Automatic annotation (TrEMBL):
Catalytic EC class: transferase
Annotated function: Acts on leucine, isoleucine and valine.
The protein's annotated pathway: Amino-acid biosynthesis; L-isoleucine biosynthesis; L-isoleucine from 2-oxobutanoate: step 4/4; Amino-acid biosynthesis; L-leucine biosynthesis; L-leucine from 3-methyl-2-oxobutanoate: step 4/4; Amino-acid biosynthesis; L-valine biosynthesis; L-valine from pyruvate: step 4/4
UniProt-listed InterPro entries: Aminotrans_IV (IPR001544), Aminotransferase-like (IPR036038), BCAT-like_C (IPR043132), BCAT-like_N (IPR043131), Class-IV_PLP-Dep_Aminotrnsfr (IPR050571)
Name of the protein this chain belongs to: Probable branched-chain-amino-acid aminotransferase
Reported cofactor(s): pyridoxal 5'-phosphate
Single GO term (MF): branched-chain-amino-acid transaminase activity
Protein's UniProt keywords contain Amino-acid biosynthesis: yes
Entry's EC annotation: 2.6.1.42
Species the sequence originates in: Salipiger pallidus
Reactions that this protein is recorded to catalyse: L-valine + 2-oxoglutarate = 3-methyl-2-oxobutanoate + L-glutamate; L-leucine + 2-oxoglutarate = 4-methyl-2-oxopentanoate + L-glutamate; L-isoleucine + 2-oxoglutarate = (S)-3-methyl-2-oxopentanoate + L-glutamate
Listed GO biological process terms: amino acid biosynthetic process; branched-chain amino acid biosynthetic process
Keyword Amino-acid biosynthesis: yes
Keywords, alphabetical: Amino-acid biosynthesis, Branched-chain amino acid biosynthesis, Pyridoxal phosphate, Transferase
Amino acid sequence: HSYPAGVAWQDGQYIPVSQAKISVLDYGFLHSDATYDTVHVWDGAFFRLDAHIERFLAGVERLRMTLPVSVPEIREILHNCVSLSGYRRAYVEMVCTRGTARDFSRDPRAATNRFLAFAVPYGSVADDAQMKRGLHVTITNTTRIPPSSVDPRVKNYHWLDLIGGLFDAYDRGGETALLLDSDGNIAEGPGFNAFSVRDGALITPEHGVLRGITRRTVMEIGHEQGRTVREGTLTRDALRSSDEVFITSTAGGVMPVTRIDGAPVNDGAVGPVTRAIMSTYWAWHKDKRFVEDVVYPSQETK
Ligand code: PMP
């Protein structure tokens, strides 16, 4: 059967995503004690699925959780969620939560970890108009949770700083937010990494950020295009005075930024380096190196 609103897998069953449920006693809900990953399906095929599963497994291990499913099972579950959904463009999430412990124990070791997954329609940080003219970003004074508190390499639901930053950005006329690290340098935003372009070279923050798969893809594209690619400190001023700025996420890919704190970046137009990287990013969706699990071999579904 097909579930137009998306399909979830939970406790061995495929169900409409609207019916997937988590216990109010689950540590994932009560304490954000969970890790997850999101991968996208484009034109009926997964993009860099291996990299996403690898990052997910690393997160599960760092949180000292035990997955109740094997890696081949995860692949099968994700594949089936997509094929049952019928979506050729999907956003696919896998989640491992600490779960619940008997007798409401406070000891996380006593909990039974849970896995669930779902496929929903593909979504983007930037809408069509913003993709064309570039996003207007506000650098917020809310600082990102420091890496000494929560390991940013573990993809997690500790989003209150990101959400607070987003509201701060809206209040100040921005469309999305960039958060600073505790030294006042650029970290990341709600669901994306940031890049600055200067003299054709790419610079992206190194510390206190999720190692985004799109970020990695863009760094590889940069190398293939013969650019200098640097992970390092990116100050507010350096970002504002960039030739070009863009952000990266599974949800939208490479997205141009043309205004920061109300002021245009350079001439305020989407720049040529950003365009070249966006174009290669989407070209790589047809490249056998990165297209990893074809759900629909023919144009049989929507
Ligand atoms: N930073 C954060 C905090 C994120 O949640 C995400 C992904 N949603 C990213 C960066 C971008 O990572 P990716 O390119 O792997 O989607």
